[in-house]
Amino acid sequence: MSNNPVHTIIKTAPQDNVGIIPYPGGLAKGAFVSGDVILTEDIPMGHKVALQDMPNGTAVIRYGQVIGYTSMDITKGSWLNETNIIMPQPPELENIICKKHDSLPQESLSGYTFQGFRNASGTVGTKNILCISESVQCVAGIANYVTDKIRKELLPRYKNVDGVVAFDHSYGCGVAIDAPAAIIPIRTIKHIAQNPNFGEETMVIGLGCEKLRPERLLRDGEKGTKQSILYLQDESFSGFEEIVKGIMEMAELHLKKLDQRKRETCHASDLVVGMQCGGSDAFSGLTANPVAGFASDLIVRAGGTVMFSEVTEVRDAIHLLVPRAINENVAQALIDEMAWYDAYLAKGQADRSANTTPGNKHGGLSNIVEKALGSIAKSGTSPIADVVSPGEKIKTKGLNFAATPASDFVCGTLQLAAGMNVHVFMTGRGTPYGLSMVPVIKVSSNSKLSQRWHDLIDFDAGPVAFGEKTIEEMGWELFQLILDVASGTKKVATDKLGLYNDLVLFNPGPLT
Ligand code: CA
């Protein structure tokens, strides 16, 4: 037996009838795994092995939940994947009971701080950036030209300002601006300008004839002034050079104010952390997401705010989330967001199964049910204090569900609008995702990825897979990293390298 040792596999719940192969090279046919299971074929890393014979139609159990049913007779030791598992129906929303959550009181955490930029309204920034908002895509060419010029000519004089960004988007005109769904892109653009990292300095570039009036992008009650709105069609400008000069002068007024901002000691309760996944694999639900979930609980215990999102990645686990809602209204709001998204997908003749990618499946996730059960681990165990619709700002501290699509860029954009000041992004397959407006901490679900992408990944949750470290230990480490990144004392990989993705609006409304 010494040349055929018993190998480790990972089970997530005692009742699971499948195990996950954790070895980077997978396991070969004939390998022994825990119990008396012998592999009947080669199985790659992250994939599932049947721990018992499963006749056609047997429920496949992972995370203690049914992730599907076998579509043929499976013998013990065989490879289970999307080709031999049939996906179950999603939980029926009508049958979920909304009742008050009787949660155990969580012990509060105090004494954890970071150095942040406090704004007049009380929000706290983790960067100090000039954001140039645009009311319509027509102005993007000039806005980007000027942004480059500001970076080169003005920023060197304002040492306390970290950068300048123009928020380009495709909205603003050629759209049914009064359609009910138009409110989503409009409030997203408006609320992004209010992200705590921009120091409450509003600067909007408009064209002049567009449907989305720049005044709609100001704070509630704020009046448009020469400091806050500039129209390219303003008749006082004669030609490109004069327009550029006008925008530069306006930018300088804001840079002077932003330059006064200084970091000060802020409590961890000022954190607003957005969690999301991208390029998940079977380890995401075992390592990175539970570690993020533990850190999320710590932030909530410290009085801070955490949001998780991605409707299609929670839809199949909604029966586990609704009972965590803090009251009936929040429970109903969760169900309403699921129902809205079901209808949105149905209109496009799709359903939540359109979520999974070839990479997810290659990484061992057979379907969206398995992906969702792993995905919700990043929400930790705290009660769900509130739900916000796409593009809305968070109003309640604690754990929030911010309803968004799962698309990385759309989710990131909506979390920025919700007010996040640190982004935590879990990946198994690997993505160089980064945002210029907030620091993005990238957490790898497996060490194979973090070793290959040593300069792109910020935190490796892989040691949890083999029990080298516990979820608790790594959760504390991630919490500390979040505080260091929020303070600016540690830089994330994408900020060191200057790798930034575009923001992408969620526009479920019609174009004209
Ligand atoms: Ca995502």
Observed structural traits:
binds calcium ion; single chain; globular; 3 domains; four-stranded parallel β-sheet; seven-stranded parallel β-sheet; 512 residues; alpha/beta
Structural features, described:
With 512 residues, the protein is of the alpha/beta class. The chain folds into three domains: 1-89, Archaeosine Trna-guanine Transglycosylase, Chain: A, domain 4; 129-258; 272-497. Helices cover 26% and strands 17% of the residues. The strands form six sheets. It has a seven-stranded parallel β-sheet with strand order 19-20-18-17-21-22-23, sandwiched between helices. Strands 13-12-14-15 form a four-stranded parallel β-sheet, sandwiched between helices. Strands 1-3-4 form a three-stranded mixed β-sheet, with no helix packed on it. Helix 1 packs across helix 3 (240-258). The longest helix is centred in the middle third of the chain and has 20 residues, at 328-347. Bound molecules: calcium ion (CA).
